[in-house]
Specification:
Length: about 120
């Protein structure tokens, strides 16, 4: 059974950090392009970060560049999103996505940045 399960979302103060995890099962993440998206209330889902399966390069939305880092651990079949210097505008539900011979989504994890 193919599955992506996110975790790590929480309430954090501005300037704080969180690390999101996305555990994959039913497929091997090394064969997939991996991404994190987010969706804030009343807004469309937006791409946050991408990890290329071809060369391991990464790309980020301008709004998170320099603050967020996407990575993967093949041995754990898990994708991560390290988020530093969090801002209130980072508040959203965060989703991981895997794209290869199929396209798979996790259920999402809530990140709230507020004092």
């Amino acid at each position: 059974q193919v599955q992506l399960v996110e975790s790590g979302g929480d309430l954090v103060q501005p300037g704080g950090s969180l690390r999101l995890s996305c555990a994959a099962s039913g497929f091997t993440i090394s064969q997939f392009m991996l991404s994190w998206y987010r969706q804030a209330p009343g807004k469309e889902r937006e791409l946050v970060a991408v990890f290329s399966r071809v060369d391991g390069s990464t790309n980020y939305a301008d709004s998170v560049k320099g603050r967020f880092t996407i990575s993967r651990d093949i041995s754990r079949n898990t994708v991560y999103l390290q988020m530093n210097s969090l801002k209130p505008e980072d508040t959203a539900v965060y989703y991981c996505n895997a794209r290869g011979w199929g396209t798979f989504w996790g259920q999402g994890t809530q990140v709230t940045v507020s004092s």
